[in-house]
Design goal:
By secondary structure, the protein is α+β, with helices and mostly antiparallel strands. The protein has a domain of 42 residues. Helices cover 40% and strands 13% of the residues. α1 runs antiparallel to α2.
Length: 134
Amino acid sequence: MPTETPRRVDPRVPLAVVGLVLLAAMAFLLLHGPRFETTAAFDDESVAVSCGSVLTVGWPTDHSSLSSENSRSYGDHIRSGKTDFAGRDGIARDCSERRDTYLGFLAVLAVPTSVCLSALLRPGRRSTGQTTSV
């Protein structure tokens, strides 16, 4: 009586899924800018900041400083609250540090992502379709 061997899952499939998830995480880190809230040193008012993404750093714009909500800058935005010049300098530094962290995570994720996705290029095992008898 012929019996069929159980189908095995191609080992490339889980690697491809993990690679695609890591690729999505990398796209998020590349396109999404950091956001944070901070308080001034001598003020209780909170300042909400939206930083430009890693991708937009160095992109040519008409202004390279922090802008208010009404401005059309592609850089860093103060969404709510008010700051003085020193506060804006600190916010610009914080945005730069957070983008550097995003870029570091991108570099760390690049290796496992490429390894997982390169598994798709490896030829898979072909099933011969033969059955064995006991």
